[in-house]
Every structure is written in C-alpha cells, then in structure tokens.
Amino acid sequence: MGGGSSCPPCERPAPPDPYLSQPWRNVKDDYQENLAFVKSYEPRNQDVKHLRILLHGPVGSGKSSFFNSVDSALKGRVTGRAPTDAISGSSYTTKYKAYKIRKDDGSFYSVIFNDIMGFEQNTNTGVDVEDVKLAMRGHMPNGYQFNPVAQLQETDRDYISSPTLEDRVHVLIGVCPVDSVSLISDEVVKKMREVRLAAAELGIPQLAILTKVDEACPEAKEDINETYRIKYLKEQVDRFSMLLGLPLNCIFLVKNYSSEIETNDDINALILTALKQMINFGDDFLDDL
Question: For 202-234, how does the pLDDT look when each residue is reduced to its tens digit (9 = 90+)?
Fold first, then answer.
C-alpha cells in the first residue's frame, strides 16, 4: 500500500507590527506639569494681556472641535462653545470668532483662540486667503461675517485700521485630520502655504495639529497613550511636514472630544502638550517684539 504524503501547514506571514519600538514623543509624564504651566501663564510682554492663537485649515478639519477640546481640558468638563457640524460639506464656521477661557476664580486664561471659516478647493467658497492675512495683522474685527466673494476692505465700517499688538495674531496653527493628509487638494495646500509664507513675513510662529487620531487608527482608538508610537500616525506627520514645510517638532497629534461626556487625562495629555508649545512659541514672538 502506498503511503499518502501530508501537506505541510500553510505558513502565512505575520502581520506587520503597527508600533515603533519607542514613542517618538513623550507626553503623558508631563501632563500635570503642562496643566500647571498653562494655568499660570502670563505674557512677558506687558503690552498684551492675552496670547492670540489663530486656527486655520481645510473645511471639516476639526478647528472648532480643537478649541472645544482645549476648553474642556482646562475646565475639567466637556464643553461645546464653538459650534461644530459632523455632516456639513461646507464650513460650519462663518464668522471670525474670538474665544476666551474662564478660570474657576472668574478670571481668564491668558490665551485667546480665534476660529475662522475653513479653506475649500474652489475659488469662491471657503475663507479667502487675503482675509486670513488681514486677520493675522489684526485688521479683522471679532464677529466679522466671512464672504468668500467679497473680502474685508479698509472702507468697511468695522475694519480695524490701526490694530494694536493685542489685536494681532501671535501664533498660527494649521489643523488637519490625520487621515486626510494624503487627500488634501493641491488648491487647499496652496492656500495654506500662502498663509504660512505671509505669517513668516510677519514673524508669526507656526505649528500644526493633526486631529482625529482615534478615527484614523484602531490602535489609537484602543489605547490613546500609544499615539506617538504608532507607525501610521508618524508617517502622516512626516507627510504633512513635507506638504507644508513645517518641522516635525511643530506638528502635534491630538484626539478631540467627540463622543465623550467626561474629560479624560490621557486625551488631555495630548492636547496640553500641543497647547504648551503654542504658548512657548507665541510668548517668544511677543518677547522679541
């Protein structure tokens, strides 16, 4: 009788390891230190009371949600002061809005966030680059209603003709969902680059926030503490750096508060790491002036 030969078991290659051997940035251990820093911060330049941070980026990037997340992290409860919309295909923010954050004692943090309309691919939709430049120089009033086909003019009633240092933007923050980095249109990249170059001429420091890490990556959704150890997220940071020319130490990964109804120290740690660097860069800018 002939003996049958057995088939060797199929050997499938192991799935690639999604993690780096070490995190490329440490955030959790500095959480309490960063929180204390933000709470005690006051500008060294006596000509200003508040550091002004301007958020800009594509439609749906999470600009308003990022402010809400900062507000939540500092207040210790989830807030929603900046209106957001999960399904709108156009910018839900239509006005130039300044947000202060109140402390428990009734005073305010020494940081103001300005939110603007998002960039869109088409020429006559979304915020116009020239309006962003005027905002950076301090000419745009709080509450200004954006009009993509009619930019702010010197003859407009509310135009700030002689802005003070307090009116001007001190830090420019680009915001983009981390899973959309490769999907940003050339037109939107061009607009963001133009704003970056204008900010550079004014000496304004620039950083970036890549949002929605939990939606982009199952490993981050499972454990947000692994954010800076996940290969895919680091690859997107590298790609965004190449797109806009920002150095890696100016790009931060965050998860905005979305489904949560209570704050979380691990989410806050990512947010406060980014916020501290914004404050440091902005304060250096003011100090140099």
Answer: 999 999 999 999 999 999 999 999 999 999 999
- For the 48-224+242-273 domain, the top CATH level (class) is alpha beta
Q: Is the CB of residue 101 less than 8 Å from the CB of residue 109?
A: yes
Domain borders along the chain are 48-224+242-273
Quick one: DSSP state of residue 107?
A: -
Q: Enumerate helices (H) and strands (E) in the chain, giving the number of each.
A: 8, 6
Number of neighbours of residue 259 by Cβ within 10 angstroms: 6
Helix/strand/coil for 116: coil
Which amino acid does the sequence have at 250?
A: C
Angle at 217 between CA 215 and CA 219, to 5 degrees: 120
Rounded to 10°, the helix 31-40/63-75 angle is 90
**What is the pTM for the complete model shown?**
0.92
